[in-house]
């Protein structure tokens, strides 16, 4: 970038900032940087990455600045390198988005600590901002402060941002306390095939929510005289449906019993948060939740969501496929126990340190050291189950791990229509992955990985699995259009580079 460019970009940023009536210090806080850095950027005296321009564009909600980062992001991976040292697990996408939605239950100020800076969070923040919620990054950009307005402007909802995530479905539970009629767009997210909303409708109907779907929009009408007359039995033990039922029950005066509830990590984080809001919940960590709701919540609350077991699994898989010794710190071990038991059977050499509590004071963490191991395929198939089964989002990582192991591994991904199919992309990097039917793949190892250039599969976990295989393959690979990875992982390339990977980000301009 020439100096002239820097000065022009700087003045565009200054204009956009002034247009938003922000001071340099406020913009700096939103970006997690210093006021002097913003000052240098605006004067054209600071080299500025495309990533930073993109973040400024997001912070200022500015077309002018976001023009500068037009193209999709790609990764160039120099593979065949071993990793070493230690790496921390970040907070989870799935708890962070649920907690952002749950902040709508609270008329007071909500602070969420160390929220992952990921695209999925940005999309929900865009939706919240569009309906009048004031959310800003504080404490050097680490934490989020969320303050709702007196009345939400639901008609102004940023439907484009909403459609890019599945998580927007979790607006239903909180919004039904605030409005008698509202609309939200169909939930989007990864291309994993059909994902039902019927269990959400069934659960929320007990609280008087009637949902009809027309042309890409859900129309919600709330009958305030309705009240659950018996325990609500979820028709699926899903995570977001349990969260919606919890958020509906949280502000429903009286006691609600939810059966066949998910007890997965994000649900537990939401329960701990609701407790801080004064909602008593019995049975946390089990499949029957008894919620003692309160009519109005107005509290200044501070909560630290826990670490992401799926990110922990991803980093563990990175160590396995690259044959590395790596310490993964802050692993929420309770949510990785079955994965570790299976890997132990396969011959994984690893150590777990002493347990210590996460910042929420409830989740148990360990530091996990993984060492290079000669793995053999497991005797039984790998398949997920709702918690406490093998985590649904962790299944794809077993494809990459199985490809490094001696023998044949059957992976049965019954949950999603399309996800197993994406695992066959690993064949382009030298793996033997045979699709037996849309839900089952047979992986034969070990693999001699080879570099390749390819598009990112349109699903988060399979995309990361491809990236890991590229890290294992000698030579230079290119993974194109990695938005889907950025949906769920904060600065993944940079963080992997900090333990020895060589991954460069680039964009088409
Ligand atoms: C924002 C968020 O938290 N997303 C997570 C959440 O999505 P979410 O809770 O939205 O997941 P879905 O409701 O789409 O469920 C995933 C799939 O599992 C099926 N299903 C689920 C439970 C069950 O008892 N029976 C059953 O058949 C559903 O029909 C669907 O096909 O849970 C998924 C499954 O853990 C994870 O992949 C997502 O990362
Ligand atoms: C499928 C996933 O997420 P989402 O529900 O956000 O699509 C995932 O995290 O792997």
Automatic annotation (TrEMBL):
Enzyme category, top tier: transferase
Span of domain HTH cro/C1-type: 13-67
Keyword list, A-Z: Cell cycle, Cell division, Cell shape, Cell wall biogenesis/degradation, Cytoplasm, Peptidoglycan synthesis, Transferase
Residues of the signal peptide: none
EC number, UniProt record: 2.5.1.7
Broad class of where this protein is predominantly found: cytoplasm
Reaction catalyzed: phosphoenolpyruvate + UDP-N-acetyl-alpha-D-glucosamine = UDP-N-acetyl-3-O-(1-carboxyvinyl)-alpha-D-glucosamine + phosphate
Pathway assignment: Cell wall biogenesis; peptidoglycan biosynthesis
Location of the protein in the cell: Cytoplasm
Coiled coil: none
One Pfam family here: HTH_3
PROSITE patterns, per the entry: HTH_CROC1
Family: Belongs to the EPSP synthase family. MurA subfamily.
NCBIfam families: PRK09369.1
Function of the protein: Cell wall formation. Adds enolpyruvyl to UDP-N-acetylglucosamine.
Protein name: UDP-N-acetylglucosamine 1-carboxyvinyltransferase
């Amino acid at each position: 970038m020439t100096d002239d460019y820097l000065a022009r970009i700087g003045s565009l940023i200054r204009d956009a900032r002034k247009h938003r009536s922000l001071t340099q210090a406020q913009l700096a806080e939103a970006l997690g940087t210093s006021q002097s850095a913003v000052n240098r950027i605006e004067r054209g005296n600071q080299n500025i990455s495309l990533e930073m321009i993109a973040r400024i564009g997001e912070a200022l909600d500015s077309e002018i600045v976001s023009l500068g980062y037009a193209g999709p992001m790609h990764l160039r991976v120099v593979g065949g390198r071993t990793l070493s040292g230690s790496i921390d697990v970040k907070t989870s996408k799935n708890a962070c988005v649920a907690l952002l939605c749950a902040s709508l239950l609270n008329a007071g100020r909500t602070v969420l600590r160390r929220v992952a800076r990921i695209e999925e969070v940005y999309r929900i923040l865009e939706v919240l901002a569009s309906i009048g919620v004031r959310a800003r990054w504080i404490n050097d950009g680490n934490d989020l402060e969320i303050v709702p307005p007196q009345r939400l402007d639901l008609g102004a909802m940023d439907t484009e941002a909403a459609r890019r995530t599945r998580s927007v479905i979790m607006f239903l539970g909180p919004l039904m306390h605030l409005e008698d009629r509202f609309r939200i767009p169909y939930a989007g997210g990864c291309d994993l095939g059909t994902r039902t909303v019927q269990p959400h409708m069934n659960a929320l109907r007990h609280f008087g929510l009637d949902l009809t779907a027309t042309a890409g929009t859900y129309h919600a009408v709330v009958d305030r005289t309705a009240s659950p007359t018996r325990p609500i039995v979820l028709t699926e033990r899903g995570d977001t449906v349990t969260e919606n039922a919890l958020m509906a029950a949280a502000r429903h005066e009286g006691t609600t019993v939810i059966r066949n509830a998910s007890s997965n990590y994000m649900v537990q984080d939401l329960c701990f948060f609701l407790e801080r809001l004064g909602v008593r919940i019995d049975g946390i960590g089990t499949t029957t939740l008894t919620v003692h709701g309160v009519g109005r919540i107005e509290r200044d609350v501070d909560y630290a969501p826990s670490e992401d077991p799926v990110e922990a699994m991803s980093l563990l898989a990175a160590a396995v496929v690259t044959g590395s010794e790596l310490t993964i710190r802050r692993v929420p071990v309770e949510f990785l126990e079955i994965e570790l038991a299976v890997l132990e059977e396969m011959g994984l050499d690893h150590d777990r340190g002493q347990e210590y509590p996460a910042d929420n004071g409830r989740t148990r963490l360990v530091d996990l050291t993984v060492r290079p191991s000669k793995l053999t395929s497991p005797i039984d198939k790998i398949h997920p189950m709702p918690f406490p089964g093998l985590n649904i989002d962790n299944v794809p990582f077993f494809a990459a791990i199985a490809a490094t192991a001696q023998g044949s591994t059957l992976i049965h991904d019954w949950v999603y229509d399309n996800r197993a199919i994406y695992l066959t992309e690993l064949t382009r990097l030298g793996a033997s992955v045979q699709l037996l039917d849309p839900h089952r793949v047979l992986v034969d190892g070990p693999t001699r990985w080879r570099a390749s250039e390819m598009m990112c599969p349109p699903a988060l976990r399979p995309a990361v699995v491809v990236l890991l295989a590229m890290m294992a393959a000698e030579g230079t690979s290119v993974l194109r259009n990695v938005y889907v990875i950025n949906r769920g992982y904060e600065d993944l390339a940079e963080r992997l580079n900090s333990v020895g990977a060589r991954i460069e980000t680039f964009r088409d301009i």
